[in-house]
Amino acid sequence: MANFCLILAYDGTRYNGWQRQGNTSDTIQEKLENILEHLYGEPVEIHGSGRTDAGVHALRQVANYHVPRMLSRFSCQEIQTYFNQYLPLDIRVLSVSKADSRFHARLSAESKIYEYRIDCGPIANIFNRRYLYRIEEPLNPQKMQEAASYLIGTHDFKSFCANRHMKKSTVRTIYDISFELVDGILYIRYCGDGFLYHMVRILTGTLIEIGMGDLLPTQLPTILESQNRALAGFTAPAQGLFLVEVHYPEAGE
Amino acid sequence: MANFCLILAYDGTRYNGWQRQGNTSDTIQEKLENILEHLYGEPVEIHGSGRTDAGVHALRQVANYHVPRMLSRFSCQEIQTYFNQYLPLDIRVLSVSKADSRFHARLSAESKIYEYRIDCGPIANIFNRRYLYRIEEPLNPQKMQEAASYLIGTHDFKSFCANRHMKKSTVRTIYDISFELVDGILYIRYCGDGFLYHMVRILTGTLIEIGMGDLLPTQLPTILESQNRALAGFTAPAQGLFLVEVHYPEAGE
C-alpha cells in the first residue's frame, strides 16, 4: 500500500467538524474522502490527526490515507491539484507527500498545538470577526497566565473534559501554554501530547473567567483535583479555536 | 453648530456601498444616519470622505456631521459607544472627535490611500478569502511595478473611469503606487488626491493584465492618452479593495 500524508487548512465555520458522520455530509473528512473516491475510483478512508469539533478551524491539520500500489498512479502534485480543484474554498490542501508505510496521522502524533483567539480590544475586530471570540469585559492576562502555570505538566484533566462517560484515561500532558496580546487580540497557545473532548475550549473558558475576576488563579489546582467538570469554567465557543500544528517524532510527513 | 468627525471601519461585503440611496436600506451612510437620528431625535446628514462602491471595505473611512449646539449634549465617547452598540458587527466607529466648524470630510480631504489585495500565492488563502481577489495565473509584479510608474503624476484618467458621461474634470494626481508581496498576497497601495468612479479597480485590472502578460507596461502611456475606457483593463472586483486612510491638511480630525 502507498501511504500519503496531507497537510490541510480549513475554515471550520460551516462544517460539522472533522469526523464523517452517518447522516450529515458537511464534515471535513467526508469532503476529502468523496474526492479521493472520485480520484481512485474506490472508497478510501482518511485518518486525521484528531477530530476537530464543529466550527473549529485548522491551520495545519495532518491526515493520511493508504491506497493499493496498483491504484497509486498519481504524483503528490497531481493529488494536491486535484483536491484543490474540487474542494470548496474553505478547505485547502497545503501539501501532499509520501509517508512511511507505518505513519498514521493520529497514532504517530507526538504533540499538538492549538491556539485560541480572543478579541478583547476596545473596539471589536471587523475583518477577523468570524475567527475570534469577542469579549467586551476587561480581561487581566497576567492572572490568566498565572493560572495557566498550574496546568502545565501531566494531570488528570477530567474536570476539563465534556465527555462525562469517558472510559479511557483522562490523563494528558500540557507542555506549554503561551500568551500573546497583539492589536487587542489575545492569542493563547496550548502545546500538549493530546487533548480531550472540548478540553481546549473548557481550559480557555476557565482562563477567561479567571481573567474577568470570577475565579482566582489559585483555584485552578482545586478544580483540577476535583475531577468535576462543574467546577471548571464555561466552554469557549468553537469559532475562536485553531488547530495550529501537529508534531511527529521523525519526518513521517 | 457642533461638528463631529468619525473614523470608521467597515466590511463592505453585504452593503450597497457608502452612499444612501432612495430605495435601499443597505448602505453604510444610511446605517449611520439612522443611529444618529435615534441619538439626536432628528434627522442628521453625514458626509463621508468619498463614496465607496458596493462591496468595498474601509479601514479608516472619515466622515463628519453637524448638529445644532442645543442638541449636542453627548460627549465624543458617548457618541462612539452609542454607535458601536447599535451598529451591525461589520461596521465599527473607531473614534469620534470634535472638529473645526469648517471641517468637511470630503471637501477638506487632501489625499487618500486605497489598497488592493490580490491573492496570487500557490494555494488560495482561506481565512481572508472574502477580502482578497484570487488569481490562479502567475503574475509578474516587476512588470506591474514598471507599468505603475507611468501612472504617477497628474494625468487625465478618463480611460480609467467607469462613468462615461462624467462632466467634471477627470484629471487627478497619483502621488505614489507601492507594491508589497507578503505570504502570497500582493498589496497595491494607491495614494492620490482623489479617484474617479471605479478608477482604482480599473487601474488594478489593467495592472493585473500587465502582470499576466496580456498587456505590456509600455502600453500604459498610450492607454492614458487615448482617454478611452475600452483600451484599459477589466474592473477588478470590489472585494479586494480597501479605503485605507484619508489625509487632511491639518488636524481637522
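The helical segments of chain A are 28-40, 76-86, 141-149, 199-211, 220-226.
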